[in-house]
Amino acid sequence: MAAKSDGAVAAAGPGPEGAAGGSRGGAGGRGEAAAAAGDPGVTGAGGPGPRYELRDCCWVLCALLVFFSDGATDLWLAASYYLQGHRTYFGLTLLFVILPSLVVQLLSFRWFVYDYTETAGAPGPPISTKDSGAGGPVISTKDSAVTVRTKEGSPDLGPRPEPSSASAYRRRCRRLCVWLLQTLVHLLQLGQVWRYLRAMYLGLQSRWRGERLRRHFYWRMLFESADVSMLRLLETFLRSAPQLVLQLSLLVHRGGAPDLLPALSTSASLVSLAWTLASYQKVLRDSRDDKRPLSYKGAVAQVLWHLFAIAARSLAFALFASVYKLYFGIFIVAHWCVMTFWVIQGETDFCMSKWEEIIYNMVVGIIYIFCWFNVKEGRSRRRMTLYYCIVLLENAVLTGFWYSSRNFSTDFHSLILVCVVASSFALGIFFMCVYYCLLHPNGPLLGPQMPGCICPEAPGPCGPPADAVTSPPRSLPRTTGAERDGASMGGERAGTPTPPVFQVRPGLPPTPVPRTLRTEGPVIRIDLPRKKYPAWDAHFIDRRLRKTILALEYSSPTTPRLQYRSIGISQELLEYETTV
């Protein structure tokens, strides 16, 4: 069976297993061994695992405070413009509040509908179990009718008995109440608030429950945190970023001492942008078992880094836009097109389909207008240095053009604004250096680097194996006519007959390479290559895959481990597809 692009989970069988993916959280700088010794292809479960701490709860409460302060100050400012008779300013301010909120609420409600809708004709996901040969069952799912096969020694994961009419009626009533509540919440534009509170509730439940339910609630908390971080990232760069530039432009255009309300609105938008970027990176690192979690000290350093860098960028935009409105629009569109093309050339692998990936790259292009955002695996030092050199040059040119239109001899206020732009950018670079040199999860930049993931028991390097396939190929190689005729290819002698298209492949070698396998607990094997960091794992962005994993995890007596497809299976599938 060929690899599915929709996130279906493939049936497990004997054979080499590859790069791991799992729900391992390390909130607050904590972590656990996500792979057993000598088996970097399997995510760990069964130990004490990560715990939800009170500082995680405080982080969510601070995120709620930032969310409400940003929205409240924008609405208050819009009402103030309306009462003062500035209808244009009122319309623009309100537009940047309502339109992004509607887009995010529709996306959030769509996720809720998919997560809460049951599959027609089946009480749950199709489940099958069989012996993995390593002391634990292997759980797999298929997009077909329910299939339950159990062997001796494997836990019974069969369908539950049909509920009585009274319990079915109560269940329907509860579902109706949940639907009504969620509809009301999203109509009130509070979808992110609900998800923040739900993530905090699930985290506290994981702290209070027993071991089995604790892991289940922790997984669900990580999924909810990933959802709300992605929604907030989209909303802040559609709402807070343009709102920040608009209000700063109005402040510069009016001149004199700034009013209190516009200053509060710009400050709230700036803090919201910086906080959302740091929170997104923290949740992303906490969700990956191949990366060390981000500590709260590192998160605060990221907040300060983005705070000052975005402040300098936005103020340079506002100064230029206050004099050259048309040219500012041309500059923004040109910069966005260049950045989007740059991201597309990097061949990102964040989404599950081509069109979703293009839309994601366009959103990242908007983010690159204001700040740096890593979207590619590997060392980002050169790319980040190039980006900030471009930003420094643009800030200097924009500020210089604005300053050239002022009166140099009498306007001392303009010189102060130029110094503010330069000093804010310098502070942003300073805190970026503090983060990478002192607070990066992998260790100091100039000192010894620690492994990317946490594998204290593993003698070898952490993370996926070196031969793991982490992204599907862009195209498949074709067989040329010379190859079909037996021409020399790759050092083979001309005239050598090519092997038949369909043939019985040899099984595993009689003396395989010794490899220590982890034997405890069930394994969920996913017929997809694992995505590279900084992308989310497939079970975080594919709703069907997440839904199935949660159902299997809840049905299993112990927390399952996740295994993604390895290069061995991928090569065999690609060779079969190519020859056919």
Explained architecture:
The structure is a single chain. 56% of the residues lie in helices and 3% in strands. Helix 2 (87-116) packs antiparallel against helix 5 (211-254) and helix 10 (381-404) runs antiparallel to helix 11. The protein contains 15 helices and four strands. The protein has a four-stranded mixed β-sheet, with no helix packed on it. Among the domains are: 50-121 and 170-266, no CATH class; 523-564, no CATH class. It is mostly helical. It has helices at residues 54-84, 87-116, 165-187, 191-208, 211-254, 260-287, 296-321, 325-345, 354-370, 381-404, 412-439, 481-484, 538-541, 543-555, 567-579, and strands spanning 128-131, 137-140, 523-526, 561-564. It is globular and about 85 Å long.
Summarize the structure.
Its main location: membrane. With 580 residues, the protein is an all-alpha fold. It contains 15 helices and four strands.
The tally of beta strands, per DSSP, is: 4
The portion of residues forming beta strands comes to under 5%
Gap between N and C termini: 13 Å
* Structural class by secondary-structure content: mainly alpha
Give the overall average pLDDT: 75
Residue stretches low in confidence (pLDDT < 50, at least 5 long) are 1-47, 120-135, 141-158, 453-496, 498-519, 572-580
Q: What general form does the structure show? A: globular
Rg calc: 27 Å
Number of helices, where a helix is a run of at least 4 consecutive DSSP H or I residues? 15
Report the major sheet: 4 strands, mixed
Could you state the order of secondary-structure elements as H and E?
HHEEHHHHHHHHHHEHHEH
Q: In order across it, which strands form the biggest sheet?
A: 1-2-3-4
- Determine the fraction of residues in helical runs and give it as a percent range: 55-70%
Organism: Lipotes vexillifer
Biased composition (Low complexity): 1-14
Keywords: Cell membrane, Membrane, Transmembrane, Transmembrane helix
Pfam family, one: XK-related
